């Protein structure tokens, strides 16, 4: 237990030491909800809401709403297709008459899981088709994402979670962004948990530091759909 906690402090120290703030001076925050609700043996529904701020509790940056249908190939492999709506304020300072950009996004992804000793690994491969509306102009973009995530249980209640995700543009400049994340998690019940962590979000010309608070709630809904009629 002591060795695991020491590894956590070392990792957070490295993350903080590498954090730069060329984009802004304020520490921002993302508040997030994720759900995966089984509706049959093979299918589940993904639900997600994220609210992102340039500052920890103010100065709106982005709202993201995402849903999808998961197909569980086996306990360690899953394919998903879905849709997301994103509204973004691209400016740190609020200007009168500023028009937020809007995005409709279609995505396809494949997840593989494996375990090495006590470490639980998850590999997520995602393709996105992005339809952007900037008010006076529109654009269509495509990109690929790869995320490797590692979870380390400390006890039945507490765990550590880390990931690194690379975004690759399929047009123009190849590098989109990279997200490095570390968090402490708490299992509340068998199907719910929370995580408190730090995200270093690096773009080609800026790095943003973000606190993250995430709620995960995954109730099994098969009983609602499989009720027999009297």
TrEMBL record:
Keywords: Signal. InterPro entries: DUF2490. The keyword Signal applies. Residues 1-19 form the signal peptide. This is DUF2490 domain-containing protein. It comes from Flagellimonas lutimaris.
């Amino acid at each position: 237990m002591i060795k695991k906690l020491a590894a956590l402090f070392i990792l957070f120290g490295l993350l903080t030491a590498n954090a730069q703030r060329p984009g802004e001076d304020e520490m921002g925050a993302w508040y997030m909800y994720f759900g995966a609700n089984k509706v049959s043996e093979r299918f589940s529904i993904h639900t997600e809401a994220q609210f992102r701020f340039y500052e920890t509790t103010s100065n709106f940056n982005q709202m993201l709403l995402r849903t999808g249908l998961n197909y569980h190939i086996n306990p360690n492999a899953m394919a998903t297709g879905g849709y997301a709506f994103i509204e973004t304020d691209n400016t740190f300072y609020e200007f009168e008459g500023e028009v937020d950009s809007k995005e409709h996004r279609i995505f396809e992804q494949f997840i593989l899981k494996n375990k090495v000793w006590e470490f639980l690994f998850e590999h997520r491969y995602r393709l996105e088709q992005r339809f952007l509306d900037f008010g006076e102009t529109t654009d269509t973009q495509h990109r690929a994402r790869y995320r490797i995530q590692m979870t380390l249980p400390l006890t039945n209640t507490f765990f550590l979670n880390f990931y690194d995700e690379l975004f690759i543009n399929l047009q123009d400049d190849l590098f989109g962004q990279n997200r490095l994340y570390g968090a402490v998690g708490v299992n509340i019940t068998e199907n719910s948990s929370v995580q408190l962590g730090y995200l270093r979000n690096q773009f080609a010309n800026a790095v943003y530091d973000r606190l993250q608070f995430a709620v995960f709630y995954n109730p099994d809904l098969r009983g609602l759909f499989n009720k027999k009629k009297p």
